[in-house]
Write a structure and sequence with these properties.
This protein is mainly α and 430 residues long. It has 18 helices and six strands. A hairpin with a 4-residue loop joins strand 4 and strand 5. Helix 4 crosses helix 7 and helix 7 runs antiparallel to helix 18. The termini are far apart. It binds carboxymethyl coenzyme *A. Carboxymethyl coenzyme *A binds next to helix 17.
Length: 430
């Protein structure tokens, strides 16, 4: 809270009130409007929460104008270059970078929970083989609440941390199991001698009949993508987790709701949509035609992987991923024509008045799919990759919310339906 106040006056009634200004450690000053309904009798209208902060948080900072992203104060560029996903997970959960012994203990905790109840595989096998993996993820993660509900006490910090670590640990196991069910392959249990992303790749692609060596390049690339996707403050899925969490719901149910929110193409589903778009465009010569379509208000087509609610500058994650794309394709000895297509699309869009004026830049999802594809991850699993990484952000934000006095999330509305009218008997209606 700062000492500053903003005077709001209602010209019609002549009434005035002062509203306090809330200041964080960084970022825009924010007006505390809680006193508005009782002071002036007004609610506020902000569909899409374009101008509304719903909570105070110490986890992630974004300056969308300058293209800055920091986890717990650490710039994303430094974490991407020097950290690992597991260390970033510890940082997001606990607020500080771990000492070596704390990191080892955390790694062991996560390893300890990588397996899932055997019955969960039975549940997964109940899905039709071509079910979308995000639909399976939402269902299966939600079902974890059935295994951990009766004895779960949301007011116990130790139990909360245990639930958070369980989810981080189990998400890759469930994701790989969903994929293997789709492929008709036998399930592979987590190998805890492997590191986080190695373990996931092993569960995805190894066969019981053959030796499987995890590619170091692939594990490193995945680790980088997971760091970049780990948290992004109050985005749609995280806000969903917080909203569900504000009711005191089981944390596995909260995260399942987050998975559902992430699936939409305007959010995490964009990485899958980008690849579909690039495949549809097909050739560099067709890029101008699609740019024109994206600008046409009568055409629902949008340039997927472009634009962001908060970034009005290049998404810093996209800068890192674009550079990584070259490295990964080079190291794997691949030459993907989609990379040329994406580069041309970006080049033309960034020179176009429409995209310049609306400040539409490539976002995190624009290039990530090209790396996933190079690693052999199927397109339908792209958003699942995002969910594995974002689980860290969801549970960190959920833990923070549980530690802060929180009211149930309950937005208001502007009612625009019929005013009161009398019920008519069926025979008297036309
Ligand atoms: N292509 C063409 N026009 C666009 C695009 C786009 N990708 N994005 C925004 N616009 C236009 C939009 O038509 C609108 O124009 P006007 O002011 O004339 O009506 C203006 O830019 C503002 O767009 P908006 O939809 O009001 O902005 P928003 O902040 O509500 O939406 C967004 C942000 C990310 C949903 C949107 O940019 C979008 O749909 N992008 C494509 C999907 C995508 O890449 N999503 C991933 C987001 S980043 C990762 C994540 O969140 O998971």
């Amino acid at each position: 809270m700062s000492n500053k106040k903003v005077l709001i006056s209602d010209k019609a009634s002549g009434q005035q009130i002062e509203l306090p200004v809330v200041r964080g450690t960084e970022g825009e000053p924010t007006l505390d409007i809680k006193g508005l309904p009782s002071g002036l009798g007004y609610f506020t209208y902000d569909p899409g929460f374009a101008a509304t902060a719903a909570c105070t948080s110490q986890i992630t900072f974004i300056d969308g104008g300058k293209g800055i992203l920091r986890y717990r104060g650490y710039p994303i560029e430094q974490l991407a270059e020097r950290s690992t996903f597991v260390e970033v997970a510890y940082l997001l959960l606990n607020g500080e970078l771990p000492t070596e012994s704390k990191l080892n203990a955390f790694r062991d905790n996560v390893k300890y929970h990588t397996m899932v109840h055997e019955q969960l595989y039975t549940f997964i096998s109940g899905f039709h083989y071509d079910a979308h993996p995000m639909a399976m993820m939402a269902g299966v993660v939600g079902s974890l609440a059935a295994f951990y509900h009766e004895r779960f006490n949301v007011n116990d910090p130790e139990q909360r941390m245990l639930a958070a670590e369980r989810m981080i640990a189990k998400m890759p196991t469930i994701a790989a199991a969903c994929y293997r069910h789709h492929m008709g392959w036998p399930m592979v249990y987590p190998q805890n001698n492997l590191r986080f992303t190695e373990r996931f790749l092993h569960m995805m692609f190894s066969m019981p009949s053959e030796e499987y060596e995890v590619s170091e390049v692939a594990a490193r690339a995945l680790d980088l993508l997971f760091i970049l996707h780990a948290d992004h403050e109050q985005n749609a899925s995280t806000s969903t987790v917080r909203l569900v969490g504000s009711t005191g719901a089981n944390p596995y149910a909260c995260v399942a709701a987050g998975i559902s929110a992430l699936w939409g193409p305007a959010h995490g589903g964009a990485n899958e949509a980008v690849l579909a778009m690039l495949a549809e465009i097909g050739d560099v010569s067709k890029v101008p035609e699609y740019i024109e379509r994206a600008k046409d208000k009568n055409d629902p087509f949008r340039l997927m992987g472009f634009g962001h609610r908060v970034y009005k500058h290049y998404d810093p994650r996209a800068t890192i991923i674009r550079a990584a794309c070259y490295e990964v394709l080079d190291e794997l000895g691949q030459d993907d024509p989609m990379m040329d297509l994406a580069m041309e699309l970006e080049r033309i869009a960034l020179e176009d008045e429409y995209f310049i004026e609306k400040k539409l830049y490539p976002n995190v999802d624009f290039y990530s799919g090209i790396i996933y594809k190079a690693l052999g991850i199927p397109v339908s699993m792209f958003t699942v990759m995002f969910a594995i990484a974002r689980t860290v952000g969801w549970v960190s934000q959920w833990l923070e919310q549980c530690e802060t006095p929180t009211k149930i999330g309950r937005p208001r509305q502007v009612y625009a339906g019929p005013t009161e009218r009398r019920y008519r008997a069926l025979h008297r209606r036309q």
